[in-house]
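Handout, section B. The chain below has 314 residues.
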Amino acid sequence: MDELEVPYYVDGDLDEYYDDPDEALLYEHLEKMSKYGRFFYMFQSCVGPTTVQTFDLVGPLLVMCFILRVVSALKLPRLVVHFVSFICGLGALFLFLKKNLVYPLAMSALGELFIVTPENWHQVRGSQMVLVMKLISLGFDMDKGTTPRPNIVEYLGYSVSVSSVIFGPFLTYSDYCQLLDGKKLGINFQLAAVLISVGTYAYIEHVFRHKLGKIFNACILARKCRPECGHVYKDGNFWVIAANLGLSFLAVFHLAYLGIMFGGDSEIQEKVIVNKNDFITGYGMNHTLGKWSDLDFASHWVALATFLLSRIIG
């Protein structure tokens, strides 16, 4: 049986020749590319429209920033400059957020009305940080559809849960619900060992730096000194820079040592079953201690030596 030959012809109307409109559009793009050249075609079809759209979006924001810069350069009262900054920011919020600008404005107003003293803020900042992390996590989970919207009682129970409201740790809403249901959470020896090590190392470094700074009267504390601190040797001193670099490299060494735990074959990791689903929770005790044993527990020995040295010099 002879094969059916399909006649090949080109019709002037691309829509009749190509049954698929996308194929016809592709042919037009290829024809333009061969006619004008690849660079000009890419500029015309991609770079140009993208640049125009970007300018339409960011252009007004740049103009308002320029206005604020000009006004701030003039010798005007600071109150006027702040007011211009407020008006320009309000315009930027309206351009990008439309009616939703009421939310950041409300937060700004509340922040201005309830500014606390440093002493009071020092007491509440830990709880505030955990609360903010909870709310952001809940918002993302609701947006992704992985968590249903809680009612007011569920929300209050989660946000100020007694298990984490003072010292933490941060828990997602799903973990909070599992905790109330008595189900297992993804906590294992690997994570606990690493976190305990991090906390211990941080305390040892804080004490060691504090004693060194006191002995040598130098700015080598764990936190950056203020310009008006009473130390004789400031940040610009060569030996202060060398000491801070050395201690920073030591911290990087500890972090690299601990970070080895978070990598490798997932087949040997422990699993926990929640709602008939398997969740990987990390490596077990034998694997974690085995990894550290291969490295001769170098980081822990260094931390112990640092602690003993801090006790000797103190």
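Note. The chain is about 65% helix and 5% strand. Compare this with the example in section A.
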